[in-house]
Design a protein that fits this description.
This protein is mainly alpha-helical and 392 residues long. The protein has helices at 20-47, 52-77, 88-123, 128-153, 174-194, 197-201, 207-217, 220-236, 247-275, 283-288, 341-350, and strands at residues 156-157, 170-171, 296-299, 311-314, 319-326, 366-372. It is a multi-pass membrane protein.
Amino acid sequence: MASPEVQEPYLGYADESRAHWVLIPTILFTILCPLLLAIRIYARRATTTLDRGDWISALALFFNLATNVMFFAMVRRGFGKHSDVIPKPDLFATLQIWFFGQITHKIALHLTKVSLLLLYVRIFSHVRAFRLTAMGLIYFIILYMISSTIVGICQCIPVASAWDLDIRGKCLNLYIIWNMNGVVSLATDVIILILPFPLVFGLHIPMSQKLALMPVFGLGVFIVVASALRVQSLLVSRVTDRTFDIIGTLWTIIEYNLAFICLCLPSVRVLLVRTWPQVFKSSVGRSQTSGVTPGAGYVRSGTGGVRTWPIKIELETRHWSRVRDSPGLDGSDSTDEILSPVEEGAAAREEGATRPEAAGITRTVRYDVDFEPVTPPAPVATGMGRADRPQD
């Protein structure tokens, strides 16, 4: 209800609301993000052990859900309506929740980027230049997260004047802060997007297989688009009604939730391939098995880093008893999956190849191969000697 002293500029002004801009995506992402993280953790535990990237993604989900809950609370207090028709206690409560929501949003978004970069580091750890670049970007994102959080908290002095309009305080220019944060976020999104592509195109594999890997590393396109639209919405419109002009808030919700979804989707694909290998098959697995003859096996060598490709070993005269995948020097699993081993193994069986199931892209530190000794059988006589012939 509008206050008695407020005059409506036009009919329906007091009841006009954009709350659905916040509620619909927030409800959807609040259901979807925890589900995808559960699938990611399940898929990771089924193939290897959890690492710091997985724990950081869980921490990112915590701040993600905390931000979503705050948006729910804001809508209940009137967020989405015109600020001059919201009762003052509800308006101040909305602005206070929005203040803390900006902080949790920054933390959730930056932790998601750190977890994604750690995934890249794990896959391409043998490429020193890539590892140093990715780690440098991780440290930059962490430092920027800390600094932007401090600036967000201290945007007004005293701090309470940021939401309590009855308190006279000195505040920074929020328009400049929002645009600066948006531009930096967009820049890091673009760098994260293009970072792995030179290595993927540098793999010694056919072009068709490289194109098959593009969706795995190209999910960041959606994040870049959302981030660009958020920056564009901030640049073209100055917020005059903080509870009604919420187009920037809409793209903010989409940005950090979509980033988290893109972080989890590769693991979802691995689980889908393991569950339904006949449905989710790729050209990568099929093309790798072409030209394989029975009696040949494949192993992956760790000496070539990401450029390693299967080396054929003829085993027709030896028994291959077992292969031990040795852990890395840091104690971590020596193989990282991006493409599921099941889809490659299924494709190999279809073409009559005998090869162990291996991940589409792997980082292998060492393989120890044991061979059982083979004792050649005694020669078998094919004819009878002269002394054994019957006499005429």
